[in-house]
Queue: 2 jobs
Job 1
Amino acid sequence: MSTDTNTAVETKRASLFSKKNRKLLKDPLDDSNPITVQVLGICSALAITVQLQQAVIMSLSVLFVMIGGNVIISLLRNMVPDRIRIIVQLVVVASLVIIVDQVLKAFQPDISEKLSVFVGLIITNCIIMGRLEAFALGNKPGPSLLDAIGNAMGYAWILLVVSIVREIFGSGAISLPGMGQVKFLPTSWFISEGGFYENNNLMILPPMALITVGLIIWIQRSRNEALIEEN
Amino acid sequence: MAINKNGTGYTFGFAIVMVVVVGTALAATAISLKPLQQANAADKKMMDILGAIKVDSQRDNAKELFAEYVTSRVSIDASGAQVSVKQGDVSTTDATDPFNIDIKKDYRLHKPAKGDLTWANADDLTFPVFECQKEGETYFVVPMVGSGLWGPIWGYVALEGDMQTIYGAKFDHKTETPGLGAEIKESFFTEKFEGKTLAEVGPTYFSVLKGGALTDVHSVDGITGGTITSKGVDEMLNRTMGIYLKYFNNATQRAQR
């Protein structure tokens, strides 16, 4: 009897990391990355990648909303009336976003101020609505969870890379959560302190984020032949 | 009996249940996090007031520094008469504490008519002023709220002991245009106010002028490209000072007697 349950658990575990499920996690990181391949969620990716710390908090917020939304919608998938399914998705996402916003205001007031409207704008982030409509509505909670993690991570790593590049070249520093901003160069080297090093303000401005994302797409496509389009 | 998932009744039922569940969950979150959020807002307010008298503070030491520098919290009415005075620790739950007067809310409810420099129904309102001691000098910090181009702007102006000279100013905004109106919060703008004085007679006590104009001791240069926001700062200063100068004049007369 006990061996039976053991095997049952094992098969379940095996199926959780089956090839199909691994694909759910891995694909959004590269082959179907929400930002670089599907070009979704660009707005927030450009706006909040000035500092690493903001990007980390934003990524965590999107991860939470994505997982919550995908799992809840997947659980409700057989109950949601077809005619109002988009509204139901919107309500679920909106309430999760409000919860994130309230929690940030309570525990991370400074970051909440810097992210300002962009937390609220997670609601309109196409990645989330897209995954709910395309995946969660037709799949069980388990795979939906993996799909959510995969897509949120696909969003997150682009955000982190862009923000690291922009912060290093734009502010000569890197801000680690909980450690404040760590400067790479001695403070006296900066022009504002009488030194010779001038920060590249262009990196701070949104166009440079777009160019950075463009560079990532370039590198990604030159490495991954599946993404090269035929003329 | 199989439920028709696409029937109108089911759809309505689903929507109603969903709204009730979501509403309850959100209300519970908001209520349980409110004390923390209020504490954060109070810390921020203390930091802003301290900023106006040029004391640098962080969230974790705002409370101590506030207790150290701010000697009393006074509320006045629209005629400039003193209503109440509080000293000692700030209590965020005590409604009579001038620290808790929500001037943003008051401004929203008593918005003056366009081009008018007086509050609507100002008699119902009380206004807070913070008396501070720093290095033996007395300063008065006056909070103010107004309208920018897109949304509310607010600030704290510290007056020196003579109640005329501006010692420091700090402005902030909710949604002004980055790079244009939003620059009111930057130090290059607020530093221009330092050392300037308020005119003795109104209604124009101080002016924020349109770019490039010559400025005198009662005016500063506004922000290029941020004309409406600059005008908002101008209006906010004059409307607020109109009330506070009555109080300050009363106080000076009292002192001379």
Note: Chain B has a mean pLDDT of 85.
Job 2
Amino acid sequence: MNLLNIIDEIEKVDPEFHERINPRRAAIKNITSFGSKVALSALPFAMGTLFKKAYGQTSSSVTDVLNFALTLEYLEAEFYTQGTNSVRTATFTTQGQNAAALGALQQITKDENNHVAFLKSVLGSAAVAKPNFDFTAKGTFPTVFTNYDTFLAVAQVFEDTGVRAYKGQAGNLLGNQVVLTAALNIHSVEARHASHLRQMRRARTMPALKPWITGANDTGIGAAVNGTYAGEDNVVQAGVDITKLSGVSGMLSVNAATEAFDEPLTKAQILAIVTPFFA
Amino acid sequence: MENLSHVDEKEQPTGDFLSANVHRRSFLKYAGAGAAGIALIAAGCKKDRSVRGVYLGDGDTAILNYAYALEQLEAAFYTQVVASPYSGISAMESSYFADIRDHEIAHREFFKAALGSSAITSLEVDFSSINFSSRDSVLATAKAFEDLGVSAYNGAGWLIKNVDYLAIAGKIVSVEARHAALIRDLISPGSFAGSDVVNQSTGLDISRSPTQVLAIAGTYIKTPINTDGLPTY
């Protein structure tokens, strides 16, 4: 972990970082001697202490959120990396995957691998190791890498799950300019991916599927992915029933109310969804 | 008072800036003239709120009103897009725009209801730069609004003190990102995460401070807004 780079990065998005951690200012200013006195393995802890002083969050809570995110990004990055390799591309091409579709999947592959690299660079030696995966989810999706539509379906579910996972962790990063902003900046990219994958599936086999989530499980995949969409049919936000609000003509529809707000999931709910994908 | 009126016609002397009568008169004149863009008045006396633009409030209230302002802008835009569609619009595009319009109205009406008596008034928009009969113009504006909205929520998240408000912002921003990706794909298929919005080395989306966002959104908002209490950076 390059601590100097990280401090630089933090200062780019948080110009008041030094002021925030005033008691540690001298240590930061004399970062070279600071670094020489602290064993490399202890640096993540030192960083955590800085974050705690700066934002009132414990190092473990911030590290936990980042490692949780990293685990999900490992899952997505490996999924797309395998799904866009030459063998799968040859298979999917025979099933109608064109150049534009491959290009889109390659863009997503790149983004997810970038997320992994970014999170690993922030976590340094505190980063969890990459797990082994079973993308059939213990046999639930046996054709995930041989049937293009199954692949796209699982991809969409991963993206919609990722959106909900980041959303559910935002509260644990309250007020943290560096980490919360980074998490939100990843969160919206996952939503962009989800939107595009939904368009891809709509064009092939799901003419009613929209870029946004309508009601709960709108995927056409079946009950196997109900967990990913549990609660997405919520229409009450902060005590306000959206279906009781005025639209263009009459009240807003239930569909509009559910589509207009994406819902979070807890870490436990997310882990229950993705655990079958770990070998 | 005759003299004051006369002064009002001229350049405003610094010393007279504190005179409420002159000030109000001056504001009305500017408002009547439809001053271009949003009046982002950064400094000054808060007692003059009423004459210096719509006051957003402070702290989380200001951030929610800031979001409410952006949602008002988006809702007004899509309402007009659907009401006067560009020539050659496809059935799929019509359907998407109607959906997006309803989502933005849902966001707008939600903020209005949630803010209650703290909600700002309805803002007057200025869409004179948009050609609603042109697909290119409508889609370019939609893309600008959606990407701006994503960057606005991303950049304001850490300024929010109340965890429940942060949760709401999170619920909305991903829907804006879904919109943004679709609009971008309508313009250029496959541009849903283009290099102008997603950093191609880190995979991170853009975030903007409230000050940066309002400087951009100001082109489309006629009503002066007083941002004195709005947290920013």
Note: Chain A has two domains: 3-55, 58-230+264-277.
